[in-house]
Design brief:
The chain has 436 residues and is an alpha/beta fold. The protein folds into three domains: 14-91, no CATH class; 95-223 and 402-434, Medium-chain alcohol dehydrogenases, catalytic domain (Quinone Oxidoreductase, Chain A, domain 1), CATH 3.90.180.10; 226-378, 3-Layer(aba) Sandwich (Rossmann fold). The protein has helices at residues 14-24, 27-42, 48-51, 70-75, 82-91, 107-110, 138-144, 186-192, 217-221, 224-237, 254-266, 279-284, 298-306, 321-324, 349-364, 385-396, 412-423; strands at residues 95-101, 111-118, 126-135, 156-157, 161-168, 179-183, 200-204, 208-210, 245-249, 269-274, 289-292, 311-316, 332-340, 375-378, 404-408, 430-434. Strands 3, 5, 6, 7, 8, 15 and 16 form a seven-stranded mixed sheet that branches. A six-stranded parallel sheet has the order 11-10-9-12-13-14. Helix 1 runs antiparallel to helix 2 and helix 10 crosses helix 11. It is globular. Residues 1-13, 43-65 and 68-82 have low confidence and may be disordered. The structure holds NADP nicotinamide-adenine-dinucleotide phosphate (NAP). The site of NADP nicotinamide-adenine-dinucleotide phosphate (NAP) has 28 residues, from helix 7, helix 10, helix 11 and strand 10. Residues 106-433 form the Enoyl reductase (ER) domain. It comes from Phaffia rhodozyma. InterPro entries: ADH-like_N, ER, GroES-like_sf, NAD(P)-bd_dom_sf, YIM1/Zinc_Alcohol_DH_Fams. This is Zinc-binding oxidoreductase. GO terms for molecular function: oxidoreductase activity.
């Protein structure tokens, strides 16, 4: 049996695995495992981690004669043969690397790499995931410097969206070694300090789906938050149906690109805004008409060109509500919804109060008090397993495409560059960090 914190290197070679197995187990025990390992090796799997892809269920009624190691207890692995279980446990290091936010502030002042973080113990309803790629969202950098300490738990593991492999399925529908994508929710970040930017993390089973085989881990990492946001906005809120007309403000953003593709799958006609240099790219996602928002005053342009053929819904990713919503009535059908997903509060308490007053004035004031004669709504995204599976299915059928803007390393230089890129608000696709 390998002691916890065993010196077995990760990843270990096949011969070293067998060497260790022979040292601690009888030939009779090792032979079937060797066959499996050799079979795995043929298919390019030679590490204990990879070996766990081939799950050897213990014969019914057989219990392990040995006292479980600390790590075994921690991870409650009991569905693989005792030998493989030992090998698997030994392949996990005793500690892991995670990026933490320690205090409120810009990333250059508030985040730190912890190289001695414990591997989390399992909890009901959660699985243990070996993270491979984490995709950043604007939410991360925005909340880093805005949410005060009393409203969130510190230290907090950074970011939400991820792609990885199941290490411990914890009696869920997943198997060891399944490739999955999903998120550690923002709520989990706030309340429990749980995020995605670590090597081994606990994720609620309901927030994960199988990774479509036809897309890369980088692409899959970028689906969840932006994809659910677009899906919930168009399907649950705007209730878009075939033949309807939709305006998407911000078609080149990740949410905007997903929204275009989902709307086209629903059979809608899509007009969208983006900067001229990205028009061709945005068109490739299926948009019917593109408006270069840098060359026109968007609300006036829409009124001039679309009043005779208004939209059934406006999906606003950009969030310039004070300027846009009050002028949207001529281009939005009376029963149409103006849905926004982004509100950037200005800095400073005074400015914030003034902004909120103006926002109330344009967005919430009833029509009989002179408010805008159209329905406005702001929504935040909820986790939803069924919708996540729908997004996975669309991606597997090549009806949902994710582009990767750029990829970065897990070290400080890599992560700082990734956050700097996010802050430009110019990314064309997902910004992805590779986890070692
Ligand atoms: N409410 C929620 O639950 C929720 C969930 C997810 C995201 N969000 C919010 O949704 C927004 C978009 O997120 P994302 O991940 O899609 O961002 P993103 O991919 O980083 O968006 C970047 C793109 O936004 C476009 N853009 C910037 N300013 C624009 C403008 N004035 N008009 C039109 N396009 C503009 C740029 O395209 P061009 O090159 O064409 O300018 C840029 O390439 C963020 O504010 C985010 O916080 C909210």
């Amino acid at each position: 049996m390998f002691p916890s914190g065993s010196s077995l290197a990760f990843p270990a070679s096949l011969s070293s695995i067998l060497g260790h197995a022979h040292r601690d187990h009888s030939e009779k025990e090792v032979t079937p495992v060797r066959r499996k390992l050799e079979c795995c090796a043929k298919f390019g799997h030679s590490t204990p981690m990879d070996v766990t892809l081939v799950t050897l269920d213990r014969p019914a009624g057989q219990t392990s004669p040995k006292k479980p190691t600390r790590l075994q207890q921690l991870l409650r692995i009991n569905r693989v043969s005792p030998v493989l279980s030992d090998l698997f446990m030994a392949s996990l290091p005793p500690v892991q690397q995670v990026w933490l936010q320690k205090r409120r502030g810009d990333h250059t002042k508030s985040i730190e790499l912890n190289t001695q973080a414990p591997i989390p113990a399992l909890e009901p309803g959660h699985v243990l995931v070996r993270v491979r790629a984490v995709a950043l969202n604007p939410l991360g950098v925005k909340t880093m410097s805005t949410i005060p300490s009393f409203a969130r738990k510190f230290p907090t593991m950074l970011e939400n969206d991820l792609c990885g492999e199941i290490l411990n399925p914890n009696d869920s529908e997943f198997q060891i070694g399944d490739e999955v994508f999903g998120m550690s929710t923002f709520e989990d970040c706030l309340k429990k300090g749980r995020g995605a930017l670590g090597q081994y993390i606990l994720v609620k089973t309901e927030n994960l789906a199988h990774k479509p085989k036809n897309i890369t881990a980088d692409e899959a990492a970028g689906i969840t938050l932006a994809g659910l946001t677009a899906y919930q906005g168009l399907v649950d809120q705007c209730k878009i149906t075939a033949g309807q007309r939709l305006f998407i403000n911000g078609g080149n953003s990740t949410v905007g690109r997903f929204a275009i593709q989902i709307a086209k799958n629903l059979g809608a006609y899509v007009v969208t805004s983006c900067s001229g240099e990205n028009a061709l790219k945005v068109k490739s996602f299926g948009a019917d008409e593109i408006i270069d928002y840098k060359r026109v005053d968007l609300p006036s342009y829409l009124v001039k060109n679309y009043t005779s053929n208004p939209f059934d819904a406006i999906y606003d990713v950009v969030g310039n509500i004070l300027n846009f919503f009050p002028r949207s009535a001529p281009v939005l059908n009376p029963k149409g919804l103006f849905l926004t997903i982004s509100i950037d509060l200005p800095k400073g308490l005074g400015s914030k109060m003034r902004f909120l007053f103006l926002l109330f004035n344009v967005a919430v004031r009833p029509t009989w008090l002179g408010g805008v004669n159209r329905k406005w709504k702001f929504v935040t995204t909820k986790s939803n397993k069924t919708q996540l599976n729908t997004l996975a299915k669309l991606a597997s059928e090549e009806k949902l495409r994710v582009d990767v803007d750029s990829t970065y390393g897990f070290d400080q230089a890599g992560l700082f560059a990734a956050f700097d890129r996010m802050k430009t608000n110019k990314a064309c696709g997902k910004i992805v960090v590779h986890v070692p």
